[in-house]
Amino acid sequence: MRLFHALMLTTALALPVLTPLAAAADTSITVTGEASVAVQPDVATLSLGVTTQGATATEAMAANSAALNVVLDRLKAAGIADRDLQTSNLSLNPNWVGYESGATPTIAGYTASNMLTVRVRALDSLGTVLDAAITDGANTLNGLTFELSDPKAKMDEARRAAVADARARAAVLAEAAGITLGEVTSITEGGGYVNPTPMFRSEAAASPVPVAAGEIAVTTTVTMVFEAKD
């Protein structure tokens, strides 16, 4: 009899203890909000340069340097500071000819190219700057973009709008799912940026060159995680 009771007690102790779940699994809602703020640019960046040819490498580079110095002088006279002028590409290449005849190709002169990145802070003078550069020797224009010199304030505005967008999306999802939206548990910025807009138009008979700055966009995204309750 004692042995029977001992076996019953041992069996009872070996059984797992079952307890009710303390709480249901946590529920959360994750959304990404987006925002873009349009703003008028206050800075233009243009890429222009001089391409010259010569019978020898020395002649090509000498002609290029002389032409570029004239362009630089006119740009400075138009109000461009030294800090806003930067050489972005310098090249010297032989001109090979003779491929079409099947003979051994030979060098027929050289081509020198020097590109400048020019930052224009006074947009009302941009047309004059372009006209001065092209008139005095710049024969290569690779592009013109408009930007914002200090995007911080507009970026903060975009961040606030992105957070509001994320909250609105989360509220719609919670309502559709029949749950209650809780506190924010996580916020991650996906990366903000200023989208420089390339814009350029010109008329051959016009001087100075007409340009239109238009608007650029300051854009950001935020990912937010909300608690949700049944």
Q: Any idea what the CATH superfamily of the largest domain is called?
A: Protein of unknown function (DUF541), domain 2
Q: What is the CATH-assigned architecture of the largest domain? A: 2-Layer Sandwich
- The secondary structure category is alpha+beta
- Unreliable spans: 3-25, 200-207
Beginning-to-end CA distance, first to last residue: 54 Å
**Strands of the largest sheet, in order across it?**
3-4-2-5-8
* Biggest sheet descriptor: 5 strands, antiparallel
Tally of structural domains? 2
**How many H/I helical runs?**
4
Strand content: 35-45%
Please state the average pLDDT score: 83
The helix/strand series, from N terminus to C terminus, equals: HEEHEEHEHEEEE
* The CATH topology of the largest domain: Alpha-Beta Plaits
CATH classification class of the largest domain: Alpha Beta
Helical content (DSSP H or I, runs of 4+): 25-40%
Report on this model:
There is one protein chain. The protein is 30% helix and 39% strand. The protein has 230 residues and is of the alpha+beta class. Strands 3-4-2-5-8 form a 5-stranded antiparallel beta sheet. α2 runs antiparallel to α3. The longest helix has 26 residues, at 152-177. The model is unreliable at 3-25 and 200-207 (pLDDT under 50).
